[in-house]
Amino acid sequence: MLTNYTKKILQSRVYDVADKTRLDFASHLSRRLNNQIWIKREDMQPVFSFKIRGAYNKIANLPPDILQKGVIAASAGNHAQGVALSAAKLGIRAVIVMPKTTPEIKVISVKHRGAEVILHGTTFDDASKYAQQLMIEQGLTYIPPYDDEDVIAGQGTVGMEILQQHTKDLEAIFIPVGGGGLIAGVAAYVKYLRPEIKIIGVEPIEAACLYEALQANERVILDQVGIFADGVAVRQIGALPFEIAKQTVDEVLLVSTDEICAAIKDIFEDTRTITEPAGALALAGLKQYVAREQCQDKNLVTIASGANMNFDRLGYVNERTEVGEQRESLLAVKIPECPGSFRQFCHTIGQRSITEFNYRYADNAQAVVFAGIRLSDGLEEKQRLIKKLTEKDYAVIDLSDNEIAKSHVRHMVGGHAANLTDERLYRFEFPERPGALLHFLTSMSQKWNISLFHYRNHGAAYGRVLVGIQVPETELDAFHAFLTRLGYTYWEESNNPAYQLFLN
Q: Which residue, 1, 208, 437, 501, has most beta carbons within 10 Å?
């Protein structure tokens, strides 16, 4: 079987339209991980994904009479663009059926490549069934995304290039897994020529179709899949890829959303390219492997499989990156509800950078603070910090792995406060440096109670801070004098309608 696929890979016609992409040395990441990390840059293809290889090889190998009738595919992403560009290159008709829920940016991209786009249903299964119907009605040829020998052979040229570009010892190649076309093609070629090289698949925890199939020794259908890494959100591994994987894949690693987000940032820091979640999936697995094996000075290759990232997802990725890298800890801490308690809490934290600080007055006895704290030494530092807070009699709950806290609660801390008097709302710009918050609290008189606090580090020179402070009318002159001495830019927002409607 491997001989047959290797022959097909060598005869593949992908280079009529696809590029031989670079194998880049990731210098920053290599220093951090104490290994030689190489990134196969499939994000640099004309459609920003490896999918062009398999799609074109399949279409280009169709008999001329079949080819001229046109092709059809069902896809909401990279496969659609690969089919569209391949058809345009060969001058034939291409129809792409996409769910109605497909983001407009992807629909426009496929149309710009000359394909006819039909929006049908709300899921990929709806689109796929309709594409099969149109295939019969219009005499078109269906181009599968992964479960096809020619598609697998096209994707396998990625493995061929890696061995051409890296001729020295190679410990492992890490490959993202969706339907399995890429890992099947790469594994078939690499294991035929260099069986000592480990082939390691990487899947999201919420879309582990190959992992579960290997565990069961048969293809299984997942009840549901997570869609954050939508490029690999597949419920069942392909039949042909599974047969190859059983013989060639050494193991499959499962990674979290936070780990994927951290890997997106890692690739950006070395390449200045922002991959899509599926594009950084393999690197997340590589990092997990290095941490587990404690290996050093090994040559490790990861495939950056695509860069079709929607711009509006970047904020979410940034939000999750620091937690995924153990560079930020999210803590819920109970402190006394009294003037000066914030200051004492910050003294306990010390000179660590605070990335977020959410608080809203609830009652006269106890306050609950939601704090994000920058970590320079990962998990060990977080454990030291929690121990220090506990020794100071603070009740601490670690929310760093709490999905609801990370996705929702951190943006929802607040609400109306009952029986609260003399509250005044101010918006500040704090200089983004360690100690800025502590300076604010230390400079302020303990006569004034902080009743609301929200701060988030946005990566800019100044942090945006919203503060509610209880200041009686008789203390206003002294309070304004404090603001002048403080020297931070501020605006009073007590009459802001958002405050009046939701917080006051």
A: 208
Tens digits of residue pLDDT in 13-33: 999 999 999 999 999 999 999
33 and 80 part of one domain: no
Active site residues: 51, 305
Identify the bridge partners of residue 357 per DSSP, sorted by sequence position.
371, 455
Judgement on whether residues 192 and 314 belong to the same structural domain of the protein: yes
Q: What does 41-82 look like in DSSP terms, one character per residue?
A: EGGGSTTSBTHHHHHHHHHHTS-HHHHTT-EEEE-SSHHHHH
Q: For 24-27, which contacts have Cβ atoms below 8 Å and span 24 or more sequence positions?
A: 24/270, 24/271, 26/266, 26/267, 26/270, 26/271, 27/270
Domain boundary among 321, 350, 382: 321
Among 204, 171, 186, CA closest to 2: 186
Domain of 350, in residue numbers:
326-502
Nearest 5°: the CA angle 141, 144, 145 is 145
